[in-house]
Amino acid sequence: MTIPYGGDYNPEQWPAEVWDTDHRLFDAAHIDTLTVGVFTWALTQPAPDVYDFSTLDRIVSRAAAAGRRICLATGTGAHPPWLAKAYPSVTRTDFEGRKHRYGQRHNSCPSSPEFRRLSAETARRIARRYAGHPAIIAWHVGNEYGGACYCSYCAAGFRGWLRTRYSTLDGLNAAWYTTFWSHTFTDWDEIEPPSALTEHWRGPDHTAFQGITLDYLRFMSDAMLANFSDEKAAIRESDPDTPVTTNFMGLYRPVDYHRWAPHLDFVSWDNYPPDDRSAARMALAHDLMRGLKDGQPFWLMEQTPSVTACRDVNPLKRPGVMRLWSWQAVAHGADAVLFFQMRAGRGASEKYHGAVIGHAGRADTRVFREVAALGAELRRIGPATLGGRTPARVALLFDWDSWWALEISDGPSRLVRYLDVVQAYHRALWDAGAGLDVVPVTADLTGYDVVVAPVLHMVKGDLAARLSEVAARGGSVVTTFLSGRVDENDNAFLTDVPGPLGPLMGVRVDEWDARESDHVNPVAIGPAAVAARLLFELVIPQGAEVVGRYRSDFYAGTAAVTRNTYGDLLSGDRVTRGQVVTLDAHDVMVIVTDR
Questions:
Q1: Who contacts 345 (Cβ-Cβ below 8 Å, separation ≥6)?
Q2: Which residues face 567 on adjacent strands?
Q3: How high is the pLDDT of residue 456?
Q4: Which reaction does it catalyse (predicted)?
Q5: pLDDT, mean of residues 12-22
Q6: Closest by alpha carbon to 52, among 41, 43, 61?
Q7: Active site residues
Q8: 3-state SS of the chain: helix, strand, coil percent to 5?
Q9: Fold of 394-583
């Protein structure tokens, strides 16, 4: 057994003689795994009551005859033209209220009953036909779920989701704070999806009612999860054992992958960093993907061997970079290294996207040689890394609700972006060589000595108590500005900031000051100084020690970085006290432990 190596292959785009060439080249490059059928719905179901598996049969048979493993997709990542014509409800209504017609790929309404029924039926027919095939090692449902819809079906689905969440209109009105602006709802049917036509006044992140928008983000993530679950259930009717996945997109805001993770048998994701200088960002994404299922290894389902084709500028991976990034994924927990795409498409929007095999079908290109060399390395390492775990004593908390709530908030600053702050703290840990896990706020924290919680804007459930337990047993907790601001409904705590984190942090925040991105207030930490930007919280120690102070403005000399001793736990012959560090400067990274 070896690490699955290969990727997304679309032979339906090519005549059969090209397939033979491809498989000879796959042998030369040590390609042993192919993801097939990702966008074949129009081929497998060319009309409402017609199913034709002849092309997919040949694809599967040819790959199996060559001894390759198959990740078989349900093909529902894009619906066929006939479906939109027969059932106009399947296309989305966008944020501005425009009903879309057929086109593109992320254009299926997740709440459309026709889409749900027919996508599940397609998955059912494919599973019924290929279940038990010895070459199939995984099922691939849909493709890169994302986006949003605001149609009448989604409005009805949203109201049903809200009934389940709040039970009563009184509970909903309290959660959404609807006494503001005369918004008290007296009937469920009065509720509209938050869009440019309702609560939003300047784009998706500018909303009059953050609670309404936050719940719609949660609902839409759940609605797409229902689509995945429909297809997985259909597969399970014929195949109870083969693992089922879908390809996530790493640091992707619209879908809460923590809510999805329990429903996947293993996590897989597509690694397309925004540039070719993002090793640290990729490390964060890998760690997040590994943390979705409590450290279980994941698949690197897609990466480009050379260039992408979806951005204004698409830099080429320099010699050796593809190899390094692939091994980085393995080091962070990947149990598969796969590419998009195996052969470059001839037309449409991805014809210039990088591929293992280019349009000319050559084996002497630099890219092909590098892919073959990496394949040989993976073959030599064999099963040594498969199933491996990455032990860590440091946890970094990541929370989609905090991400959403922070970035739809009217204040204190729209310049503070959740990922920027999280990346900064992850990068500091990464640079220090710390073994760390990126985990949800619901994770068990008992195994960690250090817990880092950047911009923990929303504090839900018993999180404050669990963080306090980390410090009380002698661990360290690190948090930052804009933490402890709101509850799970995005309503402010009726106490001093940082809300339920106050006793743990030993501070209260009296005021805060937001400034433009070029404004700097230096923070003195001993003889050194670091640059604080964007947001400056005026901190009043409530027992915490001041570690760093602002140097300028009317609050010069006041606390910017604090450390609080928390707990009193007997450990052997000594008393161990945990440390809590509160940071109020973007460029600061301080971790202390009293062990």
A1: 10, 13, 351, 353, 355
A2: none
A3: 97
A4: Hydrolysis of terminal non-reducing beta-D-galactose residues in beta-D-galactosides
A5: 95
A6: 43
A7: 144, 302
A8: 35, 20, 45
A9: Rossmann fold (3.40.50)
CB 450 within 8 A of CB 476: yes
Q: Give the type of residue at 219.
A: F
- Note if the bond before 541 is cis, omega within 30 degrees: no
Predicted local confidence at residue 587, as pLDDT: 44
Please give the Cα distance from 537 to 524 (Å, whole number). 15
Residue 196 has pLDDT above 70, yes or no: yes
Give the separation between CA 243 and CA 336, rounded to whole angstroms. 14
- Give tens-digit pLDDT for 406-439: 999 999 999 999 999 999 999 999 999 999 999 9
pLDDT bin (cut points 50, 70, 90) of residue 568 is: low
* pLDDT at residue number 590: 39
* Cα 442 to Cα 436: distance, rounded to the nearest angstrom: 16
pLDDT value at residue 390 = 86
Six token digits for residue 464 = 């404050």
Question: Does residue 580 surpass a pLDDT of 90?
Answer: no
Angle at 231 between CA 230 and CA 233, to 5 degrees: 70
Mean pLDDT of 519-542: 95
Quote the pLDDT of residue 569.
46
Residue 467 is predicted with a pLDDT of 97
Three-state DSSP string of 316-373: CCCCCHHHHHHHHHHHCCEEEEEEECCECCCCCCCCCCCCCECCCCCCCCHHHHHHHH
DSSP state string for 481-499: TT-S-B-TTSPBPSSSBTG
Distance set, CA 448 to CA 234, 391, 445 (Å) = 39, 10, 6
User: Are 365 and 358 contacting, i.e. CB atoms less than 8 angstroms apart?
Assistant: yes
Query: Nearest 10 degrees: CA dihedral of 346, 348, 353, 356?
Result: -30
Q: Which is nearest to 592 in space by CA: 571, 577, 575?
A: 577
| Token pair in block for residue 247 | 């390809």
Structural contact between residues 252 and 285, judged by C-beta atoms closer than 8 angstroms: no
What does the mean pLDDT of the chain come to? Answer: 94
Tell me how far apart the alpha carbons of residues 282 and 125 are, in angstroms, rounded to a whole number: 37
DSSP helix/strand/coil, 539 = strand
Residue 26's contacts (CB-CB under 8 Å, 6 or more residues apart) are: 6, 34, 66, 68, 342
CB 210 within 8 A of CB 405: yes
Q: Does residue 218 register a pLDDT over 80?
A: yes
- For the chain, the domains span 1-24+266-279+298-387, 152-214, 394-583
Q: Whole-angstrom Cα distance, residue 287 to residue 281?
A: 10
pLDDT at 388: 93
Q: What is the mean pLDDT of residues 142-153?
A: 98
Give the DSSP letter of residue 382: T
* List of residues 6+ apart from 284 with CB closer than 8 A: 251, 422, 423, 426, 427, 430, 438
Residues 6+ apart with CB under 8 A from 195: 95, 96, 97, 150
Which amino acid does the sequence have at 295?
A: G
The pLDDT of residue 274: 87
* Cα gap 430→279, rounded to integer Å: 10
CA geometry: angle 399, 203, 184, nearest 5 deg: 80
